[in-house]
Amino acid sequence: MVRIKLLFPIVGIFAAVQANAAIQYGRETYPEGAGSLKDMTFSRMVAPPKLVPAESGVKLKLSGTGGTYGVAKRLGTLRRAGEYVYVSTRISNPTPSFVTVEFQLYNATEKRILAQGAPVVVRNNESPAVNMGIEYTAAKRDVGDMLELRWVQSSTEHPGRSFCIEETGVETIRPMEAAETFPGGEPGRLEPAVFSGTAAFPILGKSTADADNGDGMGDGAVTVTSKETGGTYGAGWKLGKVKKPKTPLHIETVWFAAGSSFVRIDVQLYNATRETVLASSGEIIAKNIDAPPVSVMLDYQLKKSDKDCELEVRWVQTSTEHTSRNFIIDRFSVSESKQ
């Protein structure tokens, strides 16, 4: 089975969260940390699911059909307005049947969702594990309220549908490390962007017409479709602020042309604070959709001057003289060490 390589080390295990405790930051792996997880039924009065140890993580086993089931984990309370939290998880599918899961940050005191990712479909046990992340900045009304993480499974029409939670992370800053295969074509934190000129923002769409490219055939990719001509545009992924200068960054991505027309892309590591390109693939041409996918690797040694600067990965399309020139991003990763 192809798996996403974990790009950051295990840094600790969560302590038990008391009812009025501050948020516990760190990383928790399963099944070792399964005591902090609780199985739940979110809608309809049906038998609750069960959590059982699995080969990779802890598995949610359905006891009935219909409604929505899942898992909850208490995080603790927000202590001040403006407090930032970034939560991430990695899930996988242990069965031959698809499963749909939505990751949520939930205010359990006021019973409302604070942040949520798009529902992600993991096709089967041959699909790679999926990394999911959401972020939230506390409003004044959130202070003192209990937060929960929720994994909500909506594909409950058959009890054979299941998923595994492999790990959870809670950070005070958005981590520099990232690994994304865009399962089901969901863009995740990928954003459309105009880098120069006044053209309309391109449109991000879903595709499952991707080759293997190291993450599984047809597992999902994101199309970047032009709306207007001129300037430069494309897509970007915000990495966050540099907290550890003098460490090496390694970037990998695979992209390809989306149609019968050529497209030219420059993949960049960009310092958005200083408006400086730190590393670049240079302009690479893909002739058409039948051309081999383009694999890009960039290495950059973070400098002292990069500390506290916001970094981005950019896919910059320079062939913008015609709206038929479009491209597809299949996967990318960033790690704080050379591969």
Could you characterize the architecture of this molecule?
The chain is mainly beta. It folds into two domains: 26-174, Jelly Rolls (Sandwich); 180-335, Jelly Rolls. Helices cover 0% and strands 47% of the residues. It is built from no helices and 24 strands. Strands 1, 3, 4, 6, 10 and 12 form a six-stranded antiparallel beta sheet that branches. Strands 2, 5, 7, 8, 9 and 11 form a six-stranded antiparallel beta sheet that branches. Strands 13, 15, 16, 18, 22 and 24 form a six-stranded antiparallel beta sheet that branches. A hairpin with a 4-residue loop joins β19 and β20 (276-280). The model is unreliable at 1-18 (pLDDT under 50).
CATH superfamily of the largest domain: Galactose-binding domain-like
How would the global form be characterised?
globular
Describe the sheet with the most strands: 6 strands, antiparallel
Intertermini distance: 21 Å
Distinct helical segment count: 0
CATH fold topology of the largest domain: Jelly Rolls
What structural class do the secondary elements suggest? mainly beta
Second-tier CATH architecture of the largest domain: Sandwich
Please state the CA-atom Rg, rounded to the nearest Å.
21 Å
Helix content: under 10%
Low-confidence region ranges:
1-18
Strand content: over 45%
- pLDDT average, as an integer? 88
CATH class of the largest domain reads Mainly Beta
Count every beta strand, where a strand is a DSSP E run of 2 or more residues. 24
Total tally of structural domains: 2
Spell out the helices and strands N to C: EEEEEEEEEEEEEEEEEEEEEEEE
